[in-house]
Structure formats: C-alpha cells, structure tokens
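TEACHING EXERCISE
Course module: macromolecular assemblies
Task: Read the component lines below, then compare them to the predicted structure of the full complex.
Student: A.B.
Group: 4
Components provided:
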Amino acid sequence: MTQYRVLPGPEHFLPPAAASMGIYLPNPGEAHINGVIVPEEKAYEEAARQFLMAQVPTIFPGPLVLWAWNEKAAKKAAAVRKLYEILKECVQPGQKPMLIPMPDYRPKYPKINPEVEINPNHPNLTIWHNKIDCCMFIGVHCHQANLSLKIIRGGTSCYTVAMCAQAGHEDAMLSFRDASVEKIIKLGEWIRKLKGTVKPRLTTAKTSASN
Amino acid sequence: MSKERIKISPDLYDIMPSDYQDLVQSATYGKEDRGWKDIGTSKELIEQHSLCAGCPESMAFRYILASLPNPEDTVMVGSTGCTSLVFPMVAVHNIHSLFGNQNAIASGLKRALSVRFPDRVKDVVVLAGDGATVDIGLDMTLQAWFRQEKFTTICFDNELYANTGGQESGLMQKGFVAKMAPVGKLFDKVRLPEIARESGCHYVVNCTVSKPSLVEKVIRNSVLIAREIGPTYIQLYTPCILEIGKNSMEGLQEMRDSEKPTERFAYKEYVSEPAKQLLAELAAKDKERKAAAKQLAGKA
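Instructor-supplied answer key:
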C-alpha cells in the first residue's frame, strides 16, 4: 500500500500526479480523503468540516454546470447555488464564503481577473488573490480538474474537494464520485448539521496567500 | 438557428463574468441574414480583446465571426499565434491545437461531429496564421485538402512570425527585411492559393479585409461550399502594423495599397464547377425565400 498522501501544499513546483504515487479512485458508494478510500458518509462529514473551518471556503463551478447544456445541468447549477447559500448561512463572522466561476478552460491573455473568475491553467492566481483556503470543484471536466488540482497542490496550501460526476479525482484532497443534485444537497445538509460545532481557523490560520 | 442552444444556467448567471453575459446576450445567434452590418449592435468579439490597437486581425475577426452562417454549430480550430490570444474572447466554440496541427485536428473534429450529430449541420473552420498554415503546418494543411476534408481553412497572412518578434515566413514577400530576418528574404512568397487549387480546394480566395461586405461573401461561400462539397481556402492579408513599422491608424490603408490590381493581394478567386453549381442553387433559393418573405410582409 502506498505511503503517499494527498495533503494541502505547497508540495513543490511540479507535484506528482497522485495516481502515479499509488493513489487510486473510490468505488461507487465510496470517496477518498487524502488518498485513503473511505465510505461516502465519512467524506460528507469531512468536507463539511473543512468548509466550516476555512476562512474563505469557496465553490468553483465549472462549465458543466455554469452553462445550461440541458435540464440536468441547470438543476445542478441550482443545487450549487443552494449549497453556497447554506454555506453563507452557516459560517461564523470573519469567514467569507465565495462562489467563483470557472467559465472557460482557454488561457486568457494578458491575464484573468482573479476577483471574478478562476482559470484552470493558473488557478493559484485566484486562490492567492482571495486567500482561499478551502475550495470545491464541481462541473469541471476531469482533465482540466486534474491539471488545476495539481497546480493548487503544488503552489498553495488550499484544501481541495472534488465533487466529480465521474469516477473522482486522485489529485484532490477529498473526492466524491458520481456527483448528483442529491449529493450536492446532502453536503449542504452536513454543513447545516455541523454548524456551530467547528472552530474556524480565521486569523490564526496560515492562509494560502502567505505561500 | 436558435439562441436557446447557448445559455448560462439561470441560478449562476450573476456570477458569470460580464464578457460571457455580453457574448451570449448580444451575439447574433438565431438570425438567418446575419452579416457584417450587425457589427456595432451585436457582439462577437469583446472590446477588451488582446490584440494590439488598430490590428487588422481584429477587424478580420469581427467580419468573419459576423459572417459565419451557422455560428452556434460552428467550431473554429486555431493554432499558436496572435489568433490564439483572441479565441477566449469570441462567441464561437473553438479548439486550440498545437502549432501547425490545426488541419489534422479539424479533420478529426469534422468527422467526429458528423458521427455524433448525424442530423445536425456542424461547420468546422480552421483559422491560423501563415506560419502555422504554410510553414510548420504545411503537411497537415495539404493532406487535409488531398483527403477532401469538408472544412474551411482561413489563413491570416501577415507575412511573418509577428507574435515572436518578426521572423521570416514562407508567405513573406521576397526581399523583405524584418526585425529578426535582417538579411532579407531570398525567395518568393509561397503561392499557396495556387497550391490550394491544385490540391483539391473547391473555393479559393486571396484578398485583404479592407472591405467587410467582400469578406462576408467570401466567408459565407467558403463555409457553405466546404459543408456540401469539399475543402475551401481563404487567404486574408492582415498586416502586423508593429512589424512593418506602421501606426495604429495605418492598417486599413496598408491593406488598400496591397490590393491594387498589380499588388500581391489583388482579389483572386477560384471556384470549382461543382461549387459554382452549388452557389447558383443557393442564390436561387435565397431569392425565392426573400420573395416569399416580401409577399408575406405585403399580405400582413
């Protein structure tokens, strides 16, 4: 069994793909935390805890939910919005939840505006700028998510969660698989359940911007 | 055509950057007679694009994007160069390929789209610079034409490698001295339009982008012919004002000077026999449609 664990960085400039270090993906009904396969229920709790602990918990919706390709995509978008509203209602003063879109995978020149969007080719810019210390990817195509998650792990100390509609992401610190509207809502319910029980890091925390 | 095809999820609309909101709301999707005259009231390219002030390429981009007959079902394939900087800022699907690979990528894409969407018309348009089309990607360009792949190839010909500081390209004119080609070019400009014709292209045009109505006609024809018959090639002069020592306001005049009858960008057009027949049929249908619309309007 591999000793490698997918932990918040900064790992180094070119972190290895977690898959190449022996981390494998969960089966249906499971998730992984730091590369260790766990029952999905445990992952909900841990993701909710990480969100409530973070100073700037952020959801990054990608093109698969930002664009209303079909009815299912629009419903997922509605669920993402609801999750964000729950997060806002459950955090404590001093915490600043954000909802920042990843509308496009194409690199933008001369630069993106990190206040309003994130780009998978340089996600660290948005994370540093907003001091994001916990984020969740949802609706991002797998290859772009893997690229971004690796860059984030390499250059920031941000905790990454992937709500993946396929088989999950080894390169996230916590990954769900088979994402659906129900699963997004369930994560929201867990956040509500843990409201007030988790102490936020706030000023004592090392923020990603310091890296 | 319908705007319904490209929509932002209503629940996340407010967080989308305004560029995307603008491009979705103000692009001329769903309009049958779209064209360059929509520029100013519609938006195909955002104002804060990444090209230099006065760059003729931005004019070309606007005219081309406004002229595509089927924008929501069109995928453009770009290559490395100034054009690739603009693609994130346009309201048309696009793919960035490795330098020179654009016609190979477009071949696979066109075939895949035909299999995936057998009942829907999907257009593929390659848009690359002269370095990608004629030098590094010539193999892929020609092979796509030999195979009679059904897509349009547009070359933005600025006669050098502008993006990297002014190196010599195959389409550079003989004797031209560039910043990074101090000896001057020793051989003639490659005659790609003639090569395209001999390689099986059914519609070939060599011109500048000084006249928007002409660009509109050429782009429409090339896309419609490529859709039905086979490959088409358009070579557009989009001078790099920085590399040829011009000011922002001088791009248009440079194009006008270069399209005079004896100059290298004098309008040249080749249309194959099947393509001529198709254009005649399309013109007849268009006339009928317009007459019917007029009649209907008269009755109303």
